[in-house]
Design goal:
Blueprint: H1 2-16, E1 30-33, E2 44-48, E3 64-65, E4 72-76, E5 81-85, H2 103-107, E6 112-113, H3 117-121
Parallel strand pairs: 1-3
Antiparallel strand pairs: 1-2, 4-5, 5-6
């Protein structure tokens, strides 16, 4: 176990150099958000993967991850308030200002407030409209 540990530290030192206190997950692990069309110029990244001393950002691929837990959601059951975020935007049109509008907050670990259950129930979007032909 001691030999394996020393080999791991030696390998990390060759990749990261500098003092151990400067070693971060994001210096050896990157995240990329590829375009659904697989056109490289419409994708984003790579950028350093997030994580901290206790939690790494699990993703598939090393060192450059292109798949993993992209949708993030937190729910406060006491207040019925949820917060969520996903990478990209609300439009699949690269010319739209909403093509990448959620990407910066997603990269920075921020969330957007979601509608509560009560707000959804009373939302005009959940109302039923009945069309009655005129004669």
């Amino acid at each position: 176990m001691k030999i394996s540990f020393l080999q791991a530290v030696s390998t990390l030192h060759s990749h990261l150099a500098g003092p151990v206190s400067s070693w971060t997950w994001g210096r050896i692990h990157f995240r990329a958000v590829p375009s659904l069309t697989q056109v490289a110029s419409l994708g984003y990244g790579p950028r350093p993967g997030s994580g901290d001393s206790w939690t790494v950002d699990a993703a598939d691929g090393f060192p450059n991850a292109t798949a993993g837990p992209s949708w993030r959601f937190v729910m406060n059951l006491a207040s019925d308030q949820g917060y969520g975020i996903y990478p990209g935007g609300q439009s699949e049109n690269p010319l739209s200002p909403w093509y990448e509008n959620f990407l910066p907050p997603w990269w920075n670990g921020l969330y957007e407030p979601m509608l509560s259950r009560n707000q959804v129930i009373h939302s005009p979007a959940t109302m039923t409209w009945k069309l009655i032909p005129t004669t």
